[in-house]
Amino acid sequence: MSWRPRDFNMRQILPSDYQVELVGRAICQNTIIPLSKNDSKIFVSIQLIKEYSYRLMRNHEKAVLLVNSVSLLEERATQIEFHSSLKVLRIGAGFSDNKSELIKESQVLVISPQIFLGLLNKKAVDLKMVALLILDDCHHCLIGSHPYCQIMKKYRTLSAKRPRILGLTPSLLNKRVSPSNIKGTAKRLERIMHSRLETASDLAIF
C-alpha cells in the first residue's frame, strides 16, 4: 500500500503527488531531497515531523530542524506549531544553559547548526534521543568548516539508535560545482550524510 499524508490541511500548501512520494521515501530511509520551491521544503519537513508525532510524545524523543538563519528559525517554528500539536522550542543565540528544562519538555527543536553543535558538546542534548534530524540547506555538509560536518561526525559515532536524517537542498549545482562534477559531489554528500539522494519519479534531479 502506498503512503498517503495523514490529516494534512496546510493553508496555502496543497500537497502534490511528487511531494507525497518524497515524504514516503523519507519515512523509510535517510534521504537527501533537492527542492527549489520553499513550499515543497515546508511540506516535506513538516509532514515528516507529523509522521513522527506519536513516537516523539510516547518516547520523549526529539525532532530537530536545523536552519541557517534567524528569520527562517522563527518562520519554521511558527509553521510547525500551526500545523501540529507538538511542543516547539526556538533556540537562538540568546538561549542560556539554565533553560535546559525547556529542552526536556519540548518535542521539536528549531535551532541553528552552531548552537545545536554546542548543545551536543555540552551534553545538553543527547543525539540518541533525537528521532528525526532535518538539515535545511544540507549542501553545507560539503564545507569542511561548517557545523553540519561536525554534527554528522557525531552521528557516525553512534552504533545504534541513530536519528532518521532528512537533508533539504535547493540544488547541488552552483558556481563551485560544475555539471561534470555533479555526480561525484552528490555521492560525496550521500556519504557524509549517510543518506540517499532522492527525487520523485516524475522530476529531474537538478
TrEMBL record:
Pfam families xref list: DEAD
InterPro entries: DEAD/DEAH_box_helicase_dom, Helicase_ATP-bd, P-loop_NTPase, RLR_Helicase
Matching PROSITE patterns: HELICASE_ATP_BIND_1
UniProt domain Helicase ATP-binding: residue ranges: 22-190
Ranges in coiled-coil conformation: none
Cellular component GO terms held in the UniProt record: cytoplasm
SUPFAM superfamilies according to UniProt: P-loop containing nucleoside triphosphate hydrolases
Protein name: Helicase ATP-binding domain-containing protein
